[in-house]
Amino acid sequence: MKKWSKLLLVLLLVCASLSPAIAQAATPYKTYTMDGYGYVTETQTAYTPYQTIEKIGEDAFHTPSDMCISEDGLLYIADAGLKRIIVSDLEGEFLRYIGEGQLVQPTGVYVSRENLIYVADKGGKQVVVFNAEGEILTTYGRPDSPIYGNSLDFKPMKIVANESGTLYIICEGNTNGIVQISPVDGGTFLGYFGTNFTSLSFLAIIQRMVLSDAQRAKLLSNIPSTPTNLAIDEKGLIYTVTQGDHDLSLKKLNIAGNNLIMPDAYDELCAAVTTGNYKNIYVASSNGYVYEYNSEGELLFVFGGRDDGRQRVGLCSKVEAIAVDQNNRIFLLDSDKKQINVYQPTEFTNLLHESLELYANGRYEESMEPLTQVLSMNTLFDYANMAMGRAYLQIEDYENSLKYARLSKDLNGYSDAFWEIRNLWLKNNLVTAFLVILALVVLVKVLKVLQKKKGIFDPVKKVWEKISERTLVKQLKYSTYFMKHPVDGCYGVRRENKSSWICSAILLGVFIILTIINKYYCGFLFKTVREGSYDLVKDIGIVLIAFFALTVCNYLVVTIKDGEGSIKNLVSAYSYCLMPYIVLMPFMILVSNLITYNEYFIVQFGMLCIYAWVVVLLFLSIKEVNNYSVKETFTVIFLTAFTLLIAALVLFIVYVLCSQVIDFVTTVAREVVNRL
Question: pLDDT, tens digit, for every residue of 194-238?
Fold first, then answer.
């Protein structure tokens, strides 16, 4: 048996060595997606490595720089080192060369529906158009229009063309945007398209204001970035990727050059872009990660990664191009490893793509079947929950739409579904609600008459009067007077003993309770925490630390600046300043649970008023309690903020030092235990 096992192993190795062009292995990476709260989470494998194409026919790649898959399923590879376009089938079987002996340094290739082959020949400073047989039809050189720029060279890097033959070219060193050339009259320069914009940070603005002309000249020029790569879809929309352009690294440009999407995730090293068969978008980073978005720029999957030198199948070193075939397989061109990695979708991904296609075609109810299967595999896949909610919305099942919108944190879907539910409720219960309100009004009138004639509430009034005479109750009632008359209120706090430690503690406690309720039980459109997650200790601690840190730092500054307020006066006044929040926040919480995006501004305006009121009260409290002028008050506020910053810095240093000491002691203790 041992001899037969060894023989079988040798035969397997020989077979593997005889077919070096294609290799297969298990998935060496994880797949991630983004949930409705903006967190990246792991999910099922979306694509698995299918094969690795290391050479076409008997020829290995030299300097592969771009790749394109034609409508008839052929693979076109621009090899700048071999100075030609290599054509093969999707399995890597060689078919023919194009441009051999005619191209200098081809760095970009695009094949139209009519099988016209557009090549960006960087070394030749031209764009060459071939027919399917490889014959040159026309060439385009540097535009002679003055709009192009007299000092700019013409070094085409990447290229696409629309149905009318208009070229969109990315040129090396040209920061004006994508060069747009019409085939009319042998090539007419139409202008620049999809120009990236620049922005200045606040620090850069200050620098340019204070520096001299000579000093500003030494600063780095603030010029827009040149797009890295581009693609075009069947509707003629242009997709560009730009390295280092942050949330604008991926753009979807209409005919006017306006961006139509804002992706919710991006890669700083994006290198290539293409579109799929379901209006989805694929972006590849140079370090091997692949991002798949839907047509709106919402992230579906992230997978792949950089090879660490172990030559694992499916990992890349430097990606130059990405393409997708009719079977939804993804092709990644790796210029460092000189190979093409091919990935095939899993059943999970195929079901999601099927639902995307059905939904896009208006077959909403049919799209729910594959979505149900997706959710049976992963109930936490928020994109599927969101798609399910939108499908229910289209078939007017608003209750289920609301349910799935909450699961996926789909704010727009929730707002639309809640709007319909609220309209139906009002339609069905408007008369009842009117009768209830009318009954309450009549009841109030009757009770007033009974009180006037019979005094039915006199016992209750006597009890309330006795309670109101208590000092603590008077102090709590005084807080409402303080919020309306802060100047007189501060005088009462400082001179008339209208406050106490207990009163301040009660107000602060109510404030903490309301902040917790607002955080976890406000309307869904305003909630910033995950459903079902609570961290009460942290919430309470943040409020207490912020309140007492502000009070203590302010007291230290006030003491130095000859303020007249004591620590008790400051604590009492600041707790009274929270009254607008305490009084109005319950109404804001209630309203936030009853509105949609159409009335969103009501809560925003209400919250703005509350915070503005609190800030004004704080300013007047510092001024009146300490008997400052307006100028002195601003000085104290600035010094208090500076003191808070210094205190936070000191605490951070102490924390770091303590952590190092603890780590040192722990390490020594472990070493002693190991030696013993």
Answer: 888 766 555 666 666 666 666 555 555 557 788 999 999 989 999
Q: How far apart are CA 143 and CA 169, in angstroms?
A: 12
Q: Which two tokens stand for residue 332?
A: 């990644």
* DSSP line for 359-420: HHTT-HHHHHHHHHHHHHH-TT-HHHHHHHHHHHHHTT-HHHHHHHHHHHT-HHHHHHHHHH
pLDDT band at 6 (very low <50, low <70, confident <90, very high): very low
Tokens of 89: 């089938």
CA distance 474 to 226: 69
Distance CA 606, CA 612 (A): 10
Residue 26 region by backbone torsions, left for phi larger than 0, else alpha for psi between -120 and 50, else beta: beta
The least confident of 407-411, 471-475, 564-568, 670-674 is: 670-674
Q: How far apart are CA 369 and CA 338, in angstroms?
A: 42
CB atoms closer than 10 angstroms to residue 137: 12
Q: Which of 555, 558, 616, 609 is nearest to 581 (CA)?
A: 609
pLDDT in tens, 259-299: 998 888 888 889 999 999 888 999 999 999 999 998 888 89
Q: Residue type at 76?
A: Y
CA 438 to chain centre: 49
How large a percentage of the chain has pLDDT more than 70? 92
Q: What is the dihedral of CA 358, 364, 369, 371, to 10 degrees?
A: 80
Q: φ and ψ at 37, to 5 degrees? A: -95, 5
DSSP state of 562: T
Give the C-alpha separation, 127 to 373, whole Å: 48
- Whether the pTM exceeds 0.85: the reply is no
The answer to whether 623 and 633 have CB atoms below 8 angstroms apart is yes
Phi-psi region of 97 (alpha: psi -120 to 50; beta: other; left: phi over 0): beta
pLDDT above 50 for 22: no
